[in-house]
Amino acid sequence: xxxxxxxxxxxxxxxxxxxxxxxxxxxxxxxxxxxxxxxxxxxxxxxxxxxxxxxxxxxxxxxxxxxxxxxxxxxxxxxxxxxxxxxxxxxxxxxxxxxxxxxxxxxxxxxxxxxxxxxxxxxxxxxxxxxxxxxxxxxxxxxxxxxxxxxxxxxxxxxxxxxxxxxxxxxxxxxxxxxxxxxxxxx
Length: 187
Known about the structure:
This protein is of the alpha+beta class. It has a single domain, classed as Alpha-Beta Complex (Peptide Deformylase). It is 20% helix and 32% strand. The protein contains 4 helices and 7 strands, in the order ααβββββαββα. Strands 1, 2, 3, 4, 5, 6 and 7 form a 7-stranded antiparallel β-sheet that branches. The model has no long low-confidence stretch (mean pLDDT 89).
């Protein structure tokens, strides 16, 4: 199955807002969806997570690439390979902190959002085996972001103030700088 295009917010907000239905059993169709999500995510090198609704499939399946960390210079390390979470359910969410957020459905738009940095999630892996796992730090943020997609919640919904939304561009000295959206768009 070929990788699909990611739904962009402005083109189809309704599809991104639709709640996803649970997977009844991990069958061939679900395994093909997982493979499609993995291929689509891999085709977007800036992405570290993708939910089925982002390719217009409203099933409770996400793929995440964990292990990415930001160094002192602000660069991200290479994350691990895509991993599927089927019917993920948040059991516990604590240690809420403000931090980086972005989404493939909003290319070039980033924000500071508040998300849990300790997350316990239960669900099924891609083989249909149950799991109960704890995610910490930025991995928790990634998983929480993708689970939000399954409920029609977007990262822009978690932005507390328009000043927390920004784009990144190259400054005069060649360094990357944040440009608040409010400085670009007249409100």
